[in-house]
Design goal:
The structure is a single chain. The chain is of the alpha+beta class. It has two domains: 30 residues, no CATH class; 104 residues, Cytochrome b5-like heme/steroid binding domain (Flavocytochrome B2, Chain A, domain 1), CATH 3.10.120. The chain has six helices and four strands, in the order ααβαββαααβ. A four-stranded mixed sheet has the order 1-4-3-2. The longest helix is centred in the N-terminal third of the chain and has 17 residues. The chain is rod-shaped. The termini are far apart. 22% of the residues are buried. The structure holds protoporphyrin IX containing FE. The site of protoporphyrin IX containing FE has 10 residues, from helix 5. This is 5597_t:CDS:1.
Length: 161
């Protein structure tokens, strides 16, 4: 019996061979094809460098556009609060805190604009806070530590201090 006849007999006797041959052809084709699979391009995960922010630099991170990150200062730390955009975005109830040192507002439970130190002034020392206000601020500080990523430290602008 010739090789050709042997193959034909095999295919006639066991139809599974058709399936196996098809699969083999598919595997060989996929392997040799120049664009074998439509795989997504590998991307490095986004990294954030811990750094210092002056009030003016922090102001840049106020989430004015959907693309802009939102950072907020609490007790000398800077947190990335972007995932809380509903709170801190331009239309959020606490939008005043975005890109600013929010410590005084958190201590006094007020999101009024006059809780914010102007960005061309030295950092708020918070020395006048009462015991209750310091406790309130500490509670908020713990909340931010748990919920948001710490991305930096607030520092005075050298031109100001
Ligand atoms: C009118 C009274 C207020 C109401 C009804 C209110 C309501 C809320 C609610 C429902 C949440 C979300 C809580 C959660 O899901 O974890 C929240 C969070 C918050 N509130 Fe208020 N709030 C009020 C006043 C204030 C004031 C005066 C401040 C000023 C400091 C403030 C600052 C915050 C902050 C910082 C958060 C946390 C947002 C976050 O987790 O990033 N709230 N508030």
């Amino acid at each position: 019996m010739s090789l050709q006849e042997t193959f034909l007999t095999q295919f006639q006797e066991n139809p599974l061979n058709w399936f196996l041959s098809g699969f083999l052809i598919y595997v060989i084709y996929s392997y040799l094809s120049p664009v074998p699979y439509n795989l997504p391009t590998a991307k490095h995960t986004e990294t954030t460098v811990f750094r210092e922010y002056t009030p003016k630099q922090l102001r840049e991170f106020d989430g004015r556009t959907q693309q802009t990150k939102i950072y907020m200062g609490v007790c000398g730390n800077v947190y990335d609060v972007t995932k809380g955009r509903n709170f801190y975005g331009p239309d959020g109830p606490y939008g005043n805190f975005a890109g600013r040192d929010a410590s005084r507002g958190l201590a006094k439970n007020s999101f009024d604009v006059d809780m914010l130190t102007p960005i061309d002034q030295p950092l708020d020392t918070l020395e006048d806070l009462t015991r209750e206000e310091i406790e309130s601020l500490n509670d908020w500080h713990s909340h931010f530590n748990v919920k948001y990523q710490l991305v930096g430290k607030l520092v005075n602008d050298r031109d100001v201090f």
